[in-house]
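Supplementary Note 3. Input sequence used for the single-chain structure prediction.
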Amino acid sequence: MMQKPTVGRQVHFYFAGSHEGTEQLAATICKVNDDGTVNLGVMREDGSAFGQFRVNLIPEGTPGRPLSACCVWPPPILK
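The predicted structure, written as discrete structure tokens, is reproduced below.
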């Protein structure tokens, strides 16, 4: 079951063409668009931020990454 995106939730952002485990940045959902995409506030490794618009949120368990920029839910924290 896919989690519902809502404003304020944290995701992992990937640039276009990057693969799982590379180019991953922390991001916050700033808006959920009518078409199901999300607008993000993305944090670079140095702590500076930039906006990314109409990003696809990829369902959990989907292999690989699309050619366009995308985001995924972070893995669950196990205790």
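The chain is about 0% helix and 40% strand. The CA atoms of residues 6 and 32 lie 7 Å apart.
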